[in-house]
Automatic annotation (TrEMBL):
Residues 183-194 have a biased composition (Basic residues). It comes from Blattamonas nauphoetae. Residues 215-379 form the W2 domain. This is Eukaryotic translation initiation factor 5. Residues 195-221, 229-257 have a biased composition (Basic and acidic residues). Belongs to the eIF-2-beta/eIF-5 family.
Length: 395
């Protein structure tokens, strides 16, 4: 297919060097099973010199829908119905954040990792900058990179262990015994007496070496990441207990939870509640940390849906929910907890009809974050300390 679209150009320069294929889109299926397919997804990401899997993840994160790249067909499927314009906007956002040089706008940039940051380096002007710090895709790429590196280290470690095992099989001692018959009896006697002494010393030395090695092995067996994880899980569970106690204390006044009061103040009922509104009040919403605060935001949002009535506000609901998720205002575990506990809604002053209607509306979104969580779980055995700290910080 002809490459007709400028990569990051303003569309006025006909001689613009960087071109890519125009996004193709079509919808498949009906009703709840409706999907949007981008058949030339592989070609587009290829033109951008970016992994189609990363691009698919970005689409998923931005649209709050499950988005999967198919290695066989080179197409991408996004759950739900999305217009060409919406998908093009997402693609342009990706290009702006993960492709173009922040200084000169050149689309030829290389990705590298530095700590928790994804670094883009411009091949034209040499400018280096952090790409979209904190974005779900940034974190995923960094994790992916560290996972690969972690695996490499593991192989090295195993190889080393194999070598160590080799020196511990007693081969050195066998050689002495085999050499012995070549000498006369006297020699042998003399030798063995002399060597006996040496052997004792050697044996002592070797015994010491072996015991040192065993000590070292013992230290390796409890690998530091596992130990750290165990300790942090303990701390976490303590924090969880504390949360529970707090929760019991607050249960009596759920309706007037400070965050619920603030939420209603931040989003007055006479103004529309949209994704943009959430993003503009991000700082205030992030002030209240912890599980209870995040749950209060979600129940406050649900209560507003009840007060706002009408399906019009419900239309925006998934976008609002996604904005809370993408901006780390509410973490997936808390969104899923909220989703699961419709039985608690009445404690926040929400009627049963609303709580069912609202949850029915965001089924797809919940499926999407569960899918993301699964992906993260798969990577869990590659978690390094830095990522662990992130995880704990994010709780
Ligand atoms: Zn540049």
């Amino acid at each position: 297919m002809a490459k007709t679209e400028d990569i990051g150009g303003d569309g006025t320069d006909f001689a613009y060097r960087y071109k890519m294929e125009k996004l193709q889109t079509k919808t498949e299926g009906r009703g709840n099973g409706i999907k949007t397919v981008i058949p030339n997804f592989g070609a587009v990401s290829g033109d951008l010199h970016r992994s189609p899997h990363h691009l698919a993840k970005f689409f998923g994160a931005e649209l709050g829908s499950i988005s999967k790249y198919n290695d066989q067909t080179h197409g991408c499927t996004v759950n739900g119905s999305h217009t060409f314009e919406a998908l093009r906007d997402v693609l342009n956002k990706f290009i702006r954040t993960f492709v173009l040089c922040a200084k000169c706008g050149n689309p030829e940039t290389n990705m590298s990792i530095s700590g928790k940051d994804l670094i883009l380096t411009c091949q034209a002007c040499g400018h280096q900058f952090r790409a979209a710090p904190g974005h779900k895709l940034t974190n995923a790429i960094v994790q992916e990179f560290k996972g690969k590196k972690g695996k490499g280290d593991k192989h090295e470690k195993e190889a080393q262990e194999d070598e160590n095992e080799g020196s511990d099989t007693g081969i050195v001692a066998d050689i002495d015994v085999e050499e012995a018959p070549a000498h006369s009896r006297h020699d042998r006697k003399h030798r063995s007496r002399r060597e006996g002494k040496e052997n004792d010393e050697d044996k002592e030395k070797r015994r010491k070496e072996r015991s040192d090695k065993k000590k070292a092995d013992k230290e390796i067996v409890v690998d530091p990441v596992t130990a750290e994880l165990a300790k942090k899980m303990q701390d976490q569970s303590r924090a969880f207990q504390e949360d529970k106690r707090q929760e019991a204390k607050e249960r009596r006044s759920y309706r007037d939870h400070p965050m619920m009061v603030e939420f209603d103040k931040l989003f007055p009922l006479d103004a529309p509640l949209t994704q943009q509104e959430i993003e503009s009040k991000k700082e205030q919403l992030l002030k209240r940390k912890g599980q209870m605060g995040q749950l209060a935001i979600l129940y406050a949002l649900e209560r507003q849906m009840m007060k706002r009535q009408g399906d019009e506000s419900l239309q925006e609901f998934n976008f609002v929910l996604n904005a809370l998720y993408q901006n780390d205002i509410c973490h997936e575990v808390n969104i899923r907890t909220w989703y699961q506990f419709s039985s608690l809604s009445h404690l926040y002053g929400i009627d049963k009809t609303t709580s069912e209607k609202v949850r029915n509306k965001c089924k797809d979104f919940i499926e999407f974050i569960e899918e993301e969580d699964k992906e993260e779980e798969e990577k869990a055995d590659e978690v390094d300390e830095g990522a662990l700290d992130d995880m704990i910080d994010n709780l």
